[in-house]
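In the previous chapter we treated chains in isolation. Here, by contrast, the input contains four separate entities that must be folded as one system, with a combined length of 1296 residues.
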Amino acid sequence: MTSAERNTNAHNWSRAEVDALSAEHRRWGFWGSDDELGAMNFIDGEAVKHAASLVRRGEVISCAMPYDLTGPQTGYLGRFNPMHFMTQDGGDIQLGAQEHLPGLRFADDVISMPLQSGTHWDAFSHIFYDGAMYNGFGLEHVTSSGASRGALETMQERLTGRGVLLDFPRFKGVQWLEPGHAINGNDLIACAEAQGVTIGRGDILLIRTGHLAMCRAEGWGDYAGGDSPGLSLDTARVVVEREVAAVASDTWGVEVRPNETDEVMQPLHVVLLVNAGVVFGEMFDLERLAAACASDGVYEFLLAAAPLPFTGAVGGPLNPIAIR
Amino acid sequence: MTSAERNTNAHNWSRAEVDALSAEHRRWGFWGSDDELGAMNFIDGEAVKHAASLVRRGEVISCAMPYDLTGPQTGYLGRFNPMHFMTQDGGDIQLGAQEHLPGLRFADDVISMPLQSGTHWDAFSHIFYDGAMYNGFGLEHVTSSGASRGALETMQERLTGRGVLLDFPRFKGVQWLEPGHAINGNDLIACAEAQGVTIGRGDILLIRTGHLAMCRAEGWGDYAGGDSPGLSLDTARVVVEREVAAVASDTWGVEVRPNETDEVMQPLHVVLLVNAGVVFGEMFDLERLAAACASDGVYEFLLAAAPLPFTGAVGGPLNPIAIR
Amino acid sequence: MTSAERNTNAHNWSRAEVDALSAEHRRWGFWGSDDELGAMNFIDGEAVKHAASLVRRGEVISCAMPYDLTGPQTGYLGRFNPMHFMTQDGGDIQLGAQEHLPGLRFADDVISMPLQSGTHWDAFSHIFYDGAMYNGFGLEHVTSSGASRGALETMQERLTGRGVLLDFPRFKGVQWLEPGHAINGNDLIACAEAQGVTIGRGDILLIRTGHLAMCRAEGWGDYAGGDSPGLSLDTARVVVEREVAAVASDTWGVEVRPNETDEVMQPLHVVLLVNAGVVFGEMFDLERLAAACASDGVYEFLLAAAPLPFTGAVGGPLNPIAIR
Amino acid sequence: MTSAERNTNAHNWSRAEVDALSAEHRRWGFWGSDDELGAMNFIDGEAVKHAASLVRRGEVISCAMPYDLTGPQTGYLGRFNPMHFMTQDGGDIQLGAQEHLPGLRFADDVISMPLQSGTHWDAFSHIFYDGAMYNGFGLEHVTSSGASRGALETMQERLTGRGVLLDFPRFKGVQWLEPGHAINGNDLIACAEAQGVTIGRGDILLIRTGHLAMCRAEGWGDYAGGDSPGLSLDTARVVVEREVAAVASDTWGVEVRPNETDEVMQPLHVVLLVNAGVVFGEMFDLERLAAACASDGVYEFLLAAAPLPFTGAVGGPLNPIAIR
């Protein structure tokens, strides 16, 4: 079976078609020529207040994977799993290495990790097309010293608002969507409707494909960069028209793989992230949240999903907290 | 001026007195012999719902410092400031190093940092006294492979609840508390009262001393491990009686330094963190939050402050988000 | 085929037998109770002068593998392949990030690597048995702060002397020795004799098994920790009696694997490194050197093989240079 | 005192003058358009044999600084001192963390360091001028993936030959040369003559200024990038005419600082390294070697100074071993 056969609802896009879709949905300058927030601007005070009003049960659910060596990274794109080093530990205490300290003893540690090795947001500076990131900022803004435009720290007080989970396996009545399965725009609307929610302005969409559950059952395989279910280019229209603030999923790259075109790698990143200013969250663990939503049929909640402000980073980890 | 003179409201504690205070406030076994959450258990569903009800303006305020080389670390305890490496960047794209990719171009990066080099929570596994961490778990639980008890990941879905800011500089009418200034138990109550809040069960207390503001004005100096304002051992009673869930401040170590005893390093860590099961948040940036609270006189809010789940870590970074 | 079948010339040693062999060859105290050099003491000024006299052709041959991501590490024992990060590069220059510098432009970089991930020496502090390393130093000498006894830096001016290559595949007329093939003591003597050299005091033996060549032909597989040809426990006698200074090979761990006993992991490390004070060099690339020796039939040379002085390290990388 | 006053034997060069000197000494294409070795080509088999013949006493002396946190780095150029992490240690063994292993116990460790943070060679890919490194290779050869031309690994079997120490403090009868002191071409010849050696083809010159000794006595201060004694631009003529293979010193950057021009940073790097193809060794510890040479009046020796082959690196550490 070829990728084209698996992406049964997708056609093979030409680069010109991708470019046209990008142009159609481009929001550069919409929030000013200096804007670095894009669709995150849709989350205003009213949206936050409304999101807080959705907390009905007092449940707190994390959507973060563990950051450790059991993660999915294989070296692809130079990404490795987080490495944790103890610089002081119980053994040191046992051997007397802290006897110079009065009374108290301590352990301490260090982490070394690619910022996108686990659950993370892409910042705008992560993706370029034709030499530009979102809002037209050029390559000179991302050097070995980090990003000076579209950097992760611009998101430090953003991405807290209404979260909406779209649980496709439950909607489709399957354990998980198969790799290569493309979710199109009507699917987004139909799934939301079936779940009793309406996708709207400032929403952070959490797309559960079940791909993470599949890998938990069967092993990571090529989770990091291989075939996966995900969003079709066809979803761009809905995401833009509904003024969605951000989209995250339980896959490596949000969009369907194999991509719907051989002419542009990760084309939905180009259309939505680079052009429409919609950041992508990747490797979100939506399993516990999905179970909770299924238990009471409520698929909207307050989501606190700001990343850590690693200065100049082009993406980065977080602990996305759904409060419902 | 000696430290004793500066700690005018403190006496010089003996180790036996610290031990007695520890024994008085010890909660080991209170939530069962396997408990790894301590006072975080006080944050139940009702507390979360109530905290969410405090969101009135839709403001989202981060309490995280930037994670970068401008941080306060000097090498003390082996801690360095976060180091950020680009593994792909705009220069690579400019030089044609990604020409093998169709269309899309990307930047990528790596972070290496001590987990407690910036804004962070101490996990229970960070501190030992007489060979035991909170709830009596022994040294064998923290090896070079990390912590197997009291580890950071136990806090992954905790520490989201009602936050209460105690803004001591505004309460005292000063720019900042001076290094060595000890806040005692009655101060906690009086400051809360003056701000119109009551410290209660499950609260996450954010103690603003102004020390971070001082360092922003005057340079880091010995922020990381030197003298600072902070909590007196005398506060243990209030924190325990009011069933506070966690305490964080804008200093390196929450408690006053020089410590109120030469016989136990960081004695309040021993009493509260090790014995009473109250985790400490350190290097929180409370400046923006304090300004917001002062503007409308409301010092309580929903706080989403779960750390990232670095497996086996003894402490770790987060982006604490106050929603008000 | 079981491991026992493959180790046809080996018997299955009991722990007591290994201990007896250790006791027989123990040199603790021989060079004083503070000695941290062991058999490296055999390389004296006369030995160095003699080694220098062996330089006849002016050839310089490195025995180091490349240190990079193409290495054999798989995560076993927490070891990863060396990771190289550019902190300034040509792209930065191209994008103008160094325009503040007059004229000159530069690139710069960082390495992160397990010290034993590539070609390396084990230091004495790498291996313990019954709580002691070579010369009886205890566990307290290796904490999170590094090794204070038997550390790598003690070898900074050692391991330069006469190198002797024993090329077993050429001696046996095979491409490489098969995994599990055990080289015994008589093999060492016979191979040396066939090559026209005599193993003697202060020699650094380079044991070529061909295992690296096999992996270059067939892929790394489990090179790092799996089955391999190597020295039998039976070789201890020859190494000790001949007063060999150090032994290195083209395998992960010098000695034959599966080990000749299930009761002691890497038993030859215990007998020779811990007890007889003979350090082991591992993952040496002996291919170019072997070709050169075969071309003129001379298997002795000056070897400059001091490791880099990483303070407190328990092993570490080097570029072993044979001069012949 | 201004820098001009201190560099009493230097004039203030214009960029045009530096460019003219570069043009005069440029060797691009001399060893072919693909050459990546430059003056290292001067070390041929005869030179190596001759160098080996200089071993008279059997002394082995390292010229490496310790690689650890006591080093001189301050963060300038993003360089930090080597960081060493234990991944297994004596404490783990003591706490029983290795009880699953039969008999043997082990310690293991990791290093993270800028490749030029201690004793090191600059590779040709470290320095660019007008968009080119030695032999005209362009910026595209040094991306985030490392150097593909002029990389460190090209030096893997080079830089072993005749070493000549020029001990300027002893020659001048001072403890050390003062920061800003410029050594000119005639100084090189006079010092060599006074020491009974003649600088010649393929020599590796080790320039002792005493600056490291000064820092050992007085603290590092701005050793890493501040003022220092060193070679004047005037030395280029001697280095090129005598066909010197490489130059190393006990300073951060070999050449005198403040530089002899404000118009080109590190101008001798531009003239010699970029144009004449002479690599520079920096932060060599020449103290022990100088004492040995002074004791018998012999300043020539066999030097084994190949760097470790970190693939794609633009410079890197080594343990330079003088054998005399």
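Residues 83-112 of chain D form one domain. The longest strand of chain D covers residues 160-167. Compare these points with the single-chain example from earlier in the chapter.
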